[in-house]
């Protein structure tokens, strides 16, 4: 499974960005999909996850501001980020789990920078 992410960039505080991540290859058995982020000097943390039915869970820090969705036909996950804050600045990674064994695959990461 290969993951290709897009949509990162530079935005002012209060602005919006949308990230997308498409899975290709043996992606027919994708189970959960999710977004993680890692800020400089900090550990990677879960931002949002979404199961095959479309039920999403969010980190407390992004609830009410970020919306995670997926298109199963396109094997693509999205992250709509609104009301962005400087503390949202990080490299964002998509991750998927595949098959009954739950193999993990990570995307290459996309930089999101929010200026104050």
Q: Can you describe what's shown?
A:
This protein has 116 residues and is mainly beta. It contains no helices and eleven strands. The chain has strands spanning 2-6, 9-12, 17-24, 30-38, 45-50, 56-58, 66-71, 76-81, 90-98, 103-106, 110-115. Strands 2, 4, 5, 6, 9, 10 and 11 form a seven-stranded mixed sheet that branches. The protein has a four-stranded antiparallel sheet with strand order 1-3-8-7, with no helix packed on it. A hairpin with a 4-residue loop joins β7 (66-71) and β8 (76-81).
Descriptors for this entry?
globular; 0% helix; 116 residues; mainly beta
Distance between the termini: 37 Å
Structural class: mainly beta
Q: What low-confidence regions span 5 or more consecutive residues with pLDDT below 50?
A: none
Gyration radius, to the nearest Å? 13 Å
Instruction: Give the H and E element order.
Output: EEEEEEEEEEE
Approximately how much helix is present in the residues? Answer: under 10%
The largest sheet is:
7 strands, mixed
Q: What secondary-structure arrangement, pairings included, does this model have?
A:
Layout (H helix, E strand, L loop, with lengths): L1 E5 L2 E4 L4 E8 L5 E9 L6 E6 L5 E3 L7 E6 L4 E6 L8 E9 L4 E4 L3 E6 L1
Parallel strand pairs: 2-11
Antiparallel strand pairs: 1-3, 3-8, 4-5, 4-9, 5-6, 7-8, 9-10, 9-11
Question: Briefly, what is this?
Answer:
It is built from no helices and eleven strands. It has 116 residues and is mostly beta strands. The N and C termini lie far apart (37 Å).
């Amino acid at each position: 499974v290969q993951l290709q992410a897009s949509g990162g960039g530079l935005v002012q505080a209060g602005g919006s960005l949308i990230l997308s991540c498409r899975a290709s290859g043996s992606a027919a058995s994708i189970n959960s999909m999710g977004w993680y982020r890692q800020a400089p000097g900090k550990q990677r943390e879960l931002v949002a996850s979404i199961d095959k039915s479309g039920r999403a869970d969010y980190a407390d820090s992004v609830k009410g501001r970020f919306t995670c969705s997926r298109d199963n036909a396109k094997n693509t996950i999205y992250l709509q980020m609104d009301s962005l804050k400087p503390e949202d600045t990080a490299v964002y990674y998509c991750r998927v789990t595949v098959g009954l064994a739950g193999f993990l695959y990570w995307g290459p990461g996309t930089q999101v920078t929010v200026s104050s």
